[in-house]
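debug: dumping io for the single-chain case to check the tokenizer round-trip. Nothing else runs in this session.
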Amino acid sequence: MSSYTIRTFGDPVLKQRAAPITDIDGSLVRLADDMVQTMYDAPGLGLAAPQVGIQKRLFVYDLNDGKGPKTLVNPTISEHRGEWEYEEGCLSVPGLHFLIVRPKEVHLTGYDLDGNEVSIEADELEARLFQHELDHLDGTLLLEHLDDAQRKSALRALRGRVLNQAT
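debug: decoded output
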């Protein structure tokens, strides 16, 4: 069973900018472990703290590359290059996927759970995942990357689901 419930579209916590983390301690490690379990149960490739209602600048991810789950604390992207269109989904907007153009390559820095600085050159899927999770930390949802027609269609679909769940 997941430790957390994933917040979905309409929850105000998803629109707020998360606060920087000042201390990496045992409670933060437990939070990351619980978030990893929640991400696996969903299932997803990444999960940002605001998606479970916690306003901290942290996300977990696992690209299923055999390296296991990772946590990034206070991540920032300092450089980006190129463009890459790819179908993207979101655990907070369940069941919907959209072709979205994002930078193909990024340089991300942050900290691991031991307080060590991390510097990652990422491309394609890993770069997209980092950008997606950073959006969550900044209070930006996937829907904000859509053009007007796509966004209207997505909102109609989301409203339809809410109405179906209510009946």
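debug: round-trip ok. The beta strands are 46-48, 58-61, 70-81, 84-90, 93-102, 105-111, 117-123.
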